[in-house]
Specification:
The structure is a single chain. This protein is of the alpha+beta class. It has ten helices and three strands, in the order H-H-E-E-E-H-H-H-H-H-H-H-H. Helix 5 packs antiparallel against helix 6 and helix 8 packs antiparallel against helix 9. The two termini are 27 Å apart. The structure holds zinc ion (ZN).
């Protein structure tokens, strides 16, 4: 099972030696999927999904949390899933400091929200207004890591993967969608329908 993962990752990497190939990969995003998916290792079903990116050739792929921890020694995914669970169970709960930083870096929250969350960190007594803001930021975090948002990424990545073998296709537009999705956390209705048109037209 795990052998399959190493094979798949080496295929997508520049190096053909696992020990070096795995170092080419870094963590991009984590999300919780409402639909069951399969991991590269063949494991099914998985819900906690990490998007990883190759630093040398910029290829992107997704793996289940199982493999992220065992093989890629990237533990960001785990921290994010722990915080997702915590905030899903109690919307007044706190995401961890590492996750707050991640969310801010990925532009999932504003400067104000980031500073605010830091200023109330570990405080148990908050005003009604402060609780309200904290909950709003927690909801933003859940939204940011939800399947709906990330299904936009799934679609974009699917097209980009397909384009690797179909060099006639100009990826500029899809790459611009991806940048926009990374900034705003999701695509607009218009962007999404343009993307869906591409998928339909080329039967991807
Ligand atoms: Zn796996």
């Amino acid at each position: 099972m795990h052998y399959k993962l190493t094979e798949e990752i080496i295929d997508l990497s520049e190096s053909d030696q696992w020990d070096f190939a795995k170092l080419e990969w870094s963590f991009e995003f984590a999300y919780y999927s409402d639909e069951s998916q399969s991991c590269l290792c063949g494991h099914y079903p998985i819900r906690n999904i990490c998007v990883i990116k190759n630093k040398k050739n910029h290829k992107i792929t997704e793996v289940g949390n199982c493999c992220i921890n065992k093989f890629l020694s990237i533990d960001d995914g785990n921290k994010i899933f722990t915080s997702i669970k915590k905030v899903r169970d109690d919307v007044k709960g706190s995401m961890s400091a590492v996750v707050l930083d991640y969310l801010y870096r990925k532009k999932g929250i504003s400067d104000f929200e980031y500073q605010f969350y830091r200023s109330i960190y570990r405080k148990r007594i908050l005003s009604a207004k402060q609780w309200e803001i904290k909950e709003r930021i927690n909801r933003k975090f859940l939204n940011f890591t939800s399947y709906e948002t990330n299904s936009h990424f799934n679609k974009i990545n699917k097209v980009l993967k397909w384009a690797q073998n179909n060099s006639f296709f100009n990826t500029d537009f899809v790459l611009s969608l991806k940048r926009s999705c990374q900034q705003k956390g999701r695509l607009t209705e218009n962007q999404l329908s343009a993307l869906n048109n591409i998928i339909q037209k080329f039967n991807i």
